[in-house]
Amino acid sequence: MARNAPSVDAFGGGGFRLSGDWHEGSVLIIEDAAQSWPAKSLKDLTPADFEAVISAGSLAVEFVLLGVGPTNALPPKPVREALASAGIGLEFMDTPTAARTYNLLTAEGRRLAAALIAI
């Protein structure tokens, strides 16, 4: 199946430029479709923030690439546990690194979801 994953062209200023279009706030990219994501900070994340990822299932999403904000930190335990019990891996890093890594991994054809907290 041909991929049409949006590229993360820029980030900062409270949003992201995805394939040339500006998206205000955090974004969630699942199955090559970007959507607004209400997440504002790592400390406030809950399993409910990942409902769309969990609903997509482990066949559609190998793992979530989580951009946690300006500085890398461990996601809340309930989030880690909810994804693990759904059979979905979790990789987390600061948002700038996650944005760059997302572009590389989608170019390789990896089945990932990107959950990027705006900075």
Describe the structure.
By secondary structure, the protein is of the alpha/beta class. The protein has a single domain, classed as Hypothetical Protein Mth938, Chain: A (3-Layer(aba) Sandwich), CATH 3.40.1230.10. 24% of the residues lie in helices and 30% in strands. Strand 4 and strand 5 (33-36) form a beta hairpin.
Structural class: alpha/beta
Count of structural domains: 1
The string of secondary-structure elements, in order, is EEEEEHEHEHE
User: What's the total number of strands?
Assistant: 8
User: And the CATH topology?
Assistant: Hypothetical Protein Mth938, Chain: A
Indicate the mean pLDDT: 95
- Number of DSSP helices? 3
> What integer value in Å does the Rg equal?
13 Å
The shape is globular
Main β sheet profile: 5 strands, mixed
Give the C-level CATH assignment: Alpha Beta
- How far apart, in Å, are the first and last alpha carbons? 33 Å
Task: Name the CATH homologous superfamily.
Answer: MTH938-like
Share of β-strand residues: 25-35%
